[in-house]
Automatic annotation (TrEMBL):
Binding site for ATP: 105-112
Tagged with keyword ATP-binding: yes
UniProt-listed PROSITE patterns: MRP
Biological processes annotated in GO: iron-sulfur cluster assembly
Name of protein: Iron-sulfur cluster carrier protein
Length: 359
């Protein structure tokens, strides 16, 4: 008896990828054809798929189909990121499908480093990505990414983002005088922040990463209320003081109704490059505990890696220089996890213009 399209569809729906996430979700489009024993599958997914994921997915699908006796199969995978509904139900900005804020309970946990590398790994997956440095206390993204140019101002006070390593970039540091940051507080700084995000001429972005200042201050509240953000990613280190601040941060974002897309534990372990023994510099398992306690996905755990620090200091990307390192793979896994969390959110239908009805 030959395999039916329904059986193949059911098999596809049962497959999980190497992150343990369903290969298909409610927005995936699947066209299946069976022609003289050859099964043809055309899959359109709503998250980025690079070549290695494409290969892994195809292997999984072929393997699963073999179990029901399908031996000849052709699979074609394409993808298209869609715009998802924002936490505050605001309409998304033109040119930006999904805004993701990277936040932390306290300073120095590696939020900017994670933001830059997360942006770059999403870009390596094939997505169009931008990054906004909104850290009023010290905009480090231009340093990490090795950018010193200023964005060009065009008509209607709009700014053209700088492009570096394929990523569109703008920073509060380009707009503020950092010799007198204390003067800029409250409404003034939140207005500049909102303009930075909304008045940059972003070009066709799948994801815009916002590197937020640490803590739960004015900019965090302004983000929650006035920026069409799909959600936040919280960066923490595993030690107890850091986790205490994360709890406060999670409670604040939950209170103001901003979605939490996941937690990233940074500097979670250290492997000595000489003896190769691992140790937990700042304790262990904190990210997992927080994730379980607040029912928030743990997107990844990143080790302490001196190469990250030295590369960031000279404005180079770890992944850019060495895409095959263990930590580069961890970043890629993390960005795949994040893109899939976003892929499951409802669509933002408010961005779709009503059809023009001719009389
Ligand atoms: N996984 C890591 N391994 C080693 N060093 C790291 C790692 N992540 C970040 N760092 C280093 O830690 C320092 C602080 O990182 P970063 O500036 O990204 O933190 P931050 O949370 O954004 O800080 P702030 O709140 O002050 O803006 C930097 O020198 C950075 O290179």
């Amino acid at each position: 008896m030959s395999t039916t399209i329904e059986q193949i569809r059911a098999i596809l729906h049962s497959i999980k990828d190497h992150n343990g996430i369903d290969i298909l979700n409610k927005y995936s489009k699947v066209l299946i054809d069976v022609n003289e024993g050859l099964v043809i599958i055309n899959l359109e997914l709503n998250y980025p798929v690079n070549q290695s994921i494409d290969v892994l997915m195809k292997e999984k699908i072929v393997h699963a189909l073999e179990s029901i006796g399908v031996l000849k199969v052709y699979i074609n995978i394409t993808w298209q990121v869609m715009t998802h509904v924002t936490s505050n139900l605001l309409k998304s900005y033109t040119g930006v499908k999904n805004i993701i804020a990277v936040v932390s309970g306290k300073g120095g946990v590696g939020k900017s480093t994670v933001s830059a590398n997360l942006a770059y790994s999403l870009y390596l997956l094939g997505a169009r990505v931008g990054i906004v440095d909104a850290d009023i206390y010290g905009p480090s993204i231009p340093i990490i990414m090795g950018v010193s140019d200023q964005p060009e101002i065009i008509e209607h006070d709009r700014m053209v983002p700088i492009i570096k390593h394929g990523i569109q970039l703008n920073s509060l540091g380009f707009l503020l005088d950092y010799d007198s940051p204390a003067v800029l507080r409250g409404p003034m700084i939140t207005k500049i922040f909102e303009q930075l995000v909304s008045k940059t001429k972003w070009c066709d972005l799948d994801y815009l990463i916002v590197d937020m200042p640490p803590g739960t201050g004015d900019i965090a509240l302004s983000l929650a209320k006035n920026v069409p953000v799909v959600g936040t990613v919280i960066v923490t280190t595993p030690q107890d003081v850091s986790l205490m601040d994360v709890r406060r941060c999670i409670k604040m974002y939950k209170k103001v109704g901003t979605r939490i897309l996941g937690i990233i534990e940074n500097m979670s372990s250290y492997v000595c490059p000489h003896c190769m023994n691992g140790s937990n510099l700042f304790g262990s398992g904190g990210g997992k505990r927080i994730s379980a306690q607040y029912d928030v996905p743990l997107l990844g755990e990143l080790p302490f890696d001196n190469y990250i620090r030295s590369q960031s200091d000279i404005g180079e990307f770890l992944i850019f220089n060495n895409p095959l390192t263990n930590i580069a793979n961890k970043y890629l896994d993390m960005s795949i996890n994040l893109s899939k969390q976003i892929a499951l959110l409802p669509k933002n239908d408010r961005n779709i213009f009503p059809p023009i009805v001719s009389r």
